Amino acid sequence: MVIESSTRVVAVTTAERCDRCGARAFVRTTFAAGEDLHELLWCGHHFAAYESKIREQAVLVQDERDAIDATVPPLD
Ligand SMILES: [Zn+2]
């Protein structure tokens, strides 16, 4: 079950980096492993690449890709 967060508990900050490539993270996801929760951070590119898998498995998806256009000019 995926819970979409409408209230942002902790904003994804500019200091947070994609766990795959180290680019600025715009999406924070939380996964449950037994009783533990662990977070993964994603840049827009890698979140898009894995989105269907992530949404199947994550318990929380905090998507702040809205901020991409406001802060980062497109590379291409
Ligand atoms: Zn990435």
Task: List the defining traits of the structure above.
76 residues, alpha+beta, 4-stranded mixed beta sheet, 2 helices, 4 strands, binds zinc ion
What does this structure look like?
This protein has two helices and four strands. It is an alpha+beta fold and 76 residues long. The chain has a domain of 53 residues. A four-stranded mixed sheet has the order 1-4-2-3. A hairpin with a 2-residue loop joins strand 2 and strand 3. The radius of gyration is 12 Å and the shape is globular. The structure holds zinc ion. The site of zinc ion has 7 residues, from helix 1.
Give the topology:
Layout lengths: L2 E2 L22 E7 L2 E7 L1 H14 L2 E4 L2 H6 L5
Parallel strand pairs: 1-4
Antiparallel strand pairs: 2-3, 2-4
The protein binds zinc ion.
Zinc ion (ZN) binds next to helix 1.
Number of H- or I-type helical stretches: 2
Order of helices and strands: EEEHEH
- Rg over alpha carbons: 12 Å
Terminal residue distance:
36 Å
Got a strand count?
4
Considering DSSP H and I runs of 4 or more, what fraction of the residues is helical? 25-40%
Strand content: 25-35%
> What is the strand arrangement across the widest sheet?
1-4-2-3
Shape: globular
Overall pLDDT score: 85
User: What composes the largest sheet?
Assistant: 4 strands, mixed
